[in-house]
Structure formats: C-alpha cells, structure tokens
Design a protein that fits this description.
Elements: H1 3-11, H2 24-31, H3 37-45, E1 49-51, E2 55-57, H4 70-74, H5 77-87, E3 95-102, E4 107-112, E5 121-125, E6 136-139, H6 143-152, E7 171-173, H7 174-181
Antiparallel strand pairs: 1-2, 1-7, 2-3, 3-4, 4-5, 5-6
Length: about 200
C-alpha cells in the first residue's frame, strides 16, 4: 500500500462498506490512462465519496455510484490545461485530469506532465480568490500526499472553506450516503445516478 494512503487511514476512517473494486487494466485499456498507485489504493479503501461533506473524490465508473466522473472529465484534459497555461505561462506542459471538486466549486486536478503517473502533481482551481491572486495553485505532490499534508497543516488551505479539513475528517462513501438517504443523491443534492455505467 502507498505510504500516503497508510497515513490517511490513521487519520480518516474508511467507509464501513469499504472502497470500490475497479479493474484498473480495463480502465487503462479504455482510456489510455495509467493512474497513480496512491489513487488506486485510495479508491480500494475509500471509494468514491465526500470528505467532511466538502471535497468529493471521483472514481472511474462504478455501478451505482454518482462519483464516477473521472473518465468523463478526461475528455476535458486539454481544455483545463489551456486555461491553466493561460494563467500560468511558466508552467510546464501537461494535461489536467480532475479527480475532485468541492462544495464551494473548487476543482482539484492532477497535472499529467510526465508519462510516469507517480510524478503527477496536484493543481487546485479556486473559485474564491482575491483579484490579485491567480485562481490556480500547484502542489508538488500526488493526490493522497496532498490530502495528508492538508490534514497535517503542512500546506496552505487552497479551498473556500477555512475549517477544511477537520481535525479527524469524516469520509462518507456513496453506499453510506445511499443508505442514509434511501437513494444516492450526490454529495450536495444531485438527484439520481449519473448516466455513466460501468466499463
């Protein structure tokens, strides 16, 4: 298991029903994307869901889950990268693949600037920022390390909610949410299932 996911497990309990089972070889075959090891371990333990009812984590298609937006967003990698390059012309090239979004409309991406996904960095597009600041922030770490360092207070909070993450974050998986509401409605009240079935 990736060290950063091990660290997350000491600070944030995974959902009781467990994570999501994904055929990663099929994902790579269908999308051409080899996804980072820390992310694959995160999905296996936590699955799609929301952290502190604030930060949603997307997955590849998982039947029944409304968090299965990862490969849908892959179609927009070039568009996201063009926005980033316009704001940060000094940034190295590389597409952006969104793996999460917040309830304050922030988006969290990998910057896929290397053929080796273990070298992908984390980019946050902030919805709320001062006029003098760029909406884009980049962090030299992968997805799970980004979350660990946020929890430890080692990174400035890039999000529009200052109390995120909480001292011991709660991760609500899509199965738990469906059990609580009687029907899965997404982290912030979307209704029904996303129309994207399993691979």
């Amino acid at each position: 298991m990736h060290w950063a996911v091990e660290a997350l497990l000491t600070r944030m309990d995974p959902p009781a029903p467990g994570g999501d089972v994904v055929d990663w070889d099929e994902v790579q075959s269908a999308s051409g994307l080899l996804l980072p090891a820390d992310y694959r371990d995160f999905v296996a333990h936590y699955g799609g869901g929301a952290m502190d009812d604030f930060l949603c984590v997307f997955t590849p298609p998982v039947e029944g889950s409304a968090y299965n937006m990862l490969l849908v967003d892959a179609a927009f990698m070039g568009e996201y990268a063009a926005e980033y390059a316009a704001a940060r012309p000094d940034a190295p090239p590389g597409g952006l693949l969104r793996w999460g979004s917040s309830s304050t409309a922030d988006s969290v991406f990998w910057r896929c600037g290397s053929p080796n996904p273990e070298q992908w960095t984390t980019v946050v597009s902030r919805r709320q920022h001062s006029c003098d600041d760029s909406p884009w922030l980049e962090f030299d770490c992968g997805m799970a390390e980004f979350l660990v360092r946020l929890m430890r207070g080692e990174l400035p909070n890039p999000f529009g909610q200052s109390d995120f993450p909480s001292p011991r974050p709660e991760y609500l998986g899509w199965r738990e949410e469906a059990a609580e509401t009687g029907d899965f409605d997404g982290a912030w009240g979307e209704t029904g299932n996303w129309p994207y079935g399993p691979l």
